[in-house]
Amino acid sequence: MTVSPQPDERELLEAFESTIDRNDRIEPRDWMPEGYRKTLVRQIAQHAHSEIIGMQPEGNWITRAPSLRRKAILLAKVQDEAGHGLYLYSACETLGTSRTELTEKLIAGAQKYSSIFNYPTLSYADVGTIGWLVDGAAICNQVPLCRTSFGPYGRAMIRVCKEESFHQRQGYELLMTMMRGTDEQRAMVQESVDRFWWPSLMMFGPPDDDSPNTAQSMAWGIKRNTNDDLRQRFVDMTVPQAKALGVTLPDPDLVWNEERRAHDFGTPDWAEFQQVIKGNGPCNAQRIAHRRKAHEDGAWVREAAMAFAARTHEPEETTHDR
Ligand code: FAQ
């Protein structure tokens, strides 16, 4: 019998690169460079944490939703975010990192989550604004990720994006209803949009010139567009929606540029962004404390589930008397 020789690292790398060049998918059992694996774990974990932490600002309004219909919609949306977190943690597990490890890193402050969820939800209009702007930004960012080079991440994104579309529409519909209401309600919507506009633009990450990861992530097909490209796409998509809604986007420099066939817009406060991602945003401490408490309070559920799983996997003769 002839034993075929193990391919060396150069051959493995060539095979990996040719898969990337063909726009094919890398799957969990395929060989991959360590840097590719690490970048994916970093991005997917941050994305998963964002979904889970993102449940908090909206969850804040479940008990105070103004009608049964609005409450049911909000409950369903927040539950969807939990599901998105689970798909994403599962995608990360295929890269050899457990969900427990990732959660522990999150609550120790060793992994990030989206800056946007460190801002408070001060009025009920924020539920609509988050749906419209935050889910709108998430869709712009995530639709291209359906074509990301790592199979489990791209497949998770397909379902996530479908659900995010519903989230975006419910937010827009909520705001539209408020805009058809009283002057007070219209003022609430405008005040909410004023607070969330700039943080929504920051969701796309730092400008391309200050983005250390973009070039390599694009070369590996993990990211399909740069941060600035997606931010521009979001602005162009949102301006006509704001007009239809009757709200003003709080940027005096926002203007259509006929030559570029795109909107010019002002510069987000990047110093504020850096502070928020370093942990010094308005709600960072509260979000992590809440997540830590939920994790600790849920310890008994995990222990019971593990004990049940161990028992149901025991051989038949040791369990049938119980
Ligand atoms: N917040 O070099 P880059 C949602 C970090 S889901 C915090 O440009 P990259 C659904 C970045 O990690 C929202 N940190 O990085 C929902 C890096 O730090 P590191 C989440 C940020 O990875 C809706 C450093 O800055 N979506 O909203 C942010 O190439 C409503 C340098 O940055 C995703 O995660 C930020 N905004 O590009 C849920 C999408 N931006 O790790 C509930 C997937 C950058 O080196 C309610 N992720 N940083 O220490 C991505 O597309 C990318 O990771 C980017 C950042 C674009 C976020």
Automatic annotation (TrEMBL):
Pfam families given in the database record: PaaA_PaaC
Keyword tags: Oxidoreductase
GO MF terms held by the record: phenylacetyl-CoA 1,2-epoxidase activity
Enzyme Commission code(s) on record: 1.14.13.149
The keyword Oxidoreductase is assigned to this record: yes
Keyword Oxidoreductase attributed: yes
Taxonomic superkingdom: Bacteria
Family matches, as InterPro entries: Aromatic_CoA_ox/epox, Ferritin-like, Ferritin-like_SF, PaaA, PaaA_PaaC
Name of protein: 1,2-phenylacetyl-CoA epoxidase subunit A
Gene field: paaA
